[in-house]
Design brief:
Elements (H helix, E strand, L loop, with lengths): L29 H10 L2 H5 L18 H18 L4 H10 L8 H11 L8 H12 L13 H7 L5 H6 L5 H5 L5 H24 L5 H4 L3 H13 L5 H31 L4 H5 L10 H19 L2 H23 L15 H14 L2 H17 L1
The structure holds magnesium ion (MG).
Length: 378
């Protein structure tokens, strides 16, 4: 291919384009335009103050949603180049993939989902799409960012049947059990590689994950031994970084080699060959998938379910629930500078969910304080 892309990569010539037609950009390609729109969005800026695992104010060294998204993009871009995929599209998807996250990470999402149960629920992945399709209001001709089909397809990682029917062309692959582009597949796996490794790093730094538990995973043990043999006098901090970097490297290399071999065996002629395949091409080898899952298990048991993380999660859920309930029951608490609350309960619930989901951790806490003070007065 003249553009250096594999024949089955997403390219401008095979893109399904934008919902609202726009003149072609003059000094960047369409995918770079999407990436730029995502970076300039307000939802992207707010990722800086949203929890990944540790609530932002727990320490300046921990990952936030923003640094997580940057690490995902970095990993995904490296692999995209190695596989001759569309690096700009991969980057755009990676940067946008968590835009729909609530404050306080998964705890916030659980709480908001429970609040929204009778109104269709709340799901952060679907909400990411809502952010780029509707909630960002910054262009004269349309709501949302008017991103390319392929960027939106990459953002929507999973989707139930009802939502798939409602989403039309974008939802069709979930009904027909077809695959998304390789760039979307890649951004998804890069997300998993990124959080596994940075959560181990943050978990060790916070002394929440015992090294003994990580050493129960073959790969960790093997990499740690190799690093210690090579650099026996290395201090603990550099050893930790080196072990994590080396593990990450092994996953990335395995991902490249396995995906390349699968593509070489199937020889898809074009992107249709990717979409029609029975399973994703971008994946780890079976042994590395096993190690990946083993690390995930340690993270779940030792970090995500750690009493300290759990306490913070419960506090976060109470804040999100209190915010939603207060706005639903007491419209006078609704901030005046926003559009007036809608009368229809379904629409009102959605409006409140959009507002609460868009909050940063610290803004949610400030709003919670304001509401409590107002409640005490009245
Ligand atoms: Mg993520």
């Amino acid at each position: 291919m003249p553009d250096g892309l594999a024949p089955y990569a997403v390219a401008e010539r095979n893109s399904r384009g934008r919902v609202h037609a726009e003149p072609a950009p003059s000094w960047r390609n369409e995918f770079q335009r999407d990436r730029d729109r995502i970076i300039h969005s307000s939802a992207f800026r707010r990722l800086e103050y949203k929890t990944q695992v540790f609530v932002n104010h727990e320490g300046d060294m921990f990952r936030t949603r923003l640094t997580h998204s940057l690490e995902v993009a970095q990993i995904a871009r490296s692999v995209a180049r190695a596989l001759q995929l569309n690096e700009d599209l991969t980057e755009a998807i990676a940067l946008a993939h968590d835009l729909g996250h609530t404050p306080f990470g998964h705890a916030g999402q659980h709480a908001l989902n429970a609040c929204m149960r009778e109104f269709g629920g709340f799901e952060h992945n679907l909400h990411s799409l809502r952010v780029v399709d509707l909630l960002e209001q910054r262009y004269p001709g349309f709501s949302g960012l008017n991103l390319l089909f392929e960027t939106r397809e990459g953002i929507l990682k999973h989707c139930n049947r009802d939502n798939a029917m409602r989403l039309g062309e974008l939802g069709r692959r979930f009904l027909e059990r077809r695959q998304p582009s390789l760039e979307a597949q890649l951004a998804n796996v890069a997300d998993e590689i990124a959080y596994n490794h940075h959560d181990i790093d943050d978990g060790l730094r916070a002394s929440l994950i015992p090294l003994s538990k990580l050493r129960e995973v073959d790969l960790f043990r093997d990499v740690e031994r190799t690093v210690r043999e090579r650099w026996p006098d290395l201090d603990a901090k550099r050893t930790r970084y080196t072990v994590i970097r080396e593990m990450l490297n092994r996953f990335v290399l395995d991902l490249i080699e396995t995906s390349r071999a699968r593509l070489a065996a199937a020889q898809p002629a074009d992107i249709e060959g990717i979409r029609a395949a029975p399973a994703p091409f971008v994946d780890f080898s079976a042994p590395m998938r096993e190690q990946h899952l083993a690390l995930k298990r340690v993270l779940r048991l030792e970090l995500y379910e750690h009493a300290q993380v759990h306490d913070m999660a419960q506090r976060s859920q109470r804040i999100v629930t209190a915010l939603f309930t207060a706005f639903m029951q007491k419209p006078t608490l609704w901030p005046g500078q926003l559009a007036p609350l809608l009368a229809d309960p379904q629409q009102r619930a959605q409006q409140i969910a959009d507002y609460v989901a868009g909050m940063t951790d610290r803004y949610a806490m400030a709003e919670h304080d304001r509401i409590r003070r107002a409640g005490n007065k009245g």
